[in-house]
Amino acid sequence: MILYLLDLIGVAVFAVSGVLVAAHSQLDLLGGLALAALTAIGGGTLRDVLLNRHPIFWIRDTRYLLVILIAAALTMTYTALFPPPGNGLLIADALGLALFAISGAQIAEAAGLSPLIVVMMGAMTGTAGGMLRDVMSAHVPLIFQQDLYATAAIAGIVVYLLLQKLTVPRTWAISAGVAVILGMRLLAVVWGVHLPRLHAMH
């Protein structure tokens, strides 16, 4: 149930971020819905395909699509009446990243995969939808902008797995993992913390 709720909340939050990008890019209603769906289910779809989980989660359970429609409609209504919050996109994206990274890791963990693959699948679940959203809206993906993005997802998943190994209750481990990802993303957004740049010798 916790995993399912994380997934639904993550879908809703990522759908919100997709609509905010669409509004910023001045796309039409269909474009807004398309970006909302792509952001919300892109990472999970790729994960399910690689893990050979069929039918894919949103085909098996259409409530995911219903959540996307509701979240997108509410966000479109809000942005039509009020200007979106200054850091609204980044906050929505950070929350979606945290929820999806941990839920994706749990799915891989439940499949009995190695910790390395669990980390990879969780990070991909959290980041792939946002990458697709940014590419389709002609933006440089956040993951390539030096922000603590994929790094935050990896760190949160590692914390979650370590706490599981230490027999910490699952709910606490999930909460800690989500908090680490959110904390690192907020450090990047508010204080501009990022990974060091690569420099080539001339």
TrEMBL record:
Spans traversing the lipid bilayer: 5-23, 29-50, 62-82, 88-105, 112-131, 143-163, 172-193
Q: Which Pfam families match?
A: Gly_transporter
UniProt entry keywords in alphabetical sequence: Cell membrane, Membrane, Transmembrane, Transmembrane helix
Signal peptide residues on this chain, from the entry's feature table:
none
Please indicate which superkingdom the organism of origin belongs to: Bacteria
Known InterPro entries for this protein? Gly_transporter
In what residue span(s) does the Glycine transporter domain sit? 5-77, 91-164
Compartment(s) where it occurs, according to its Swiss-Prot or TrEMBL record: Cell membrane
Give membrane topology per the record: Multi-pass membrane protein
Protein family per UniProt: Belongs to the UPF0126 family.
Q: Name the chain's protein.
A: Trimeric intracellular cation channel family protein
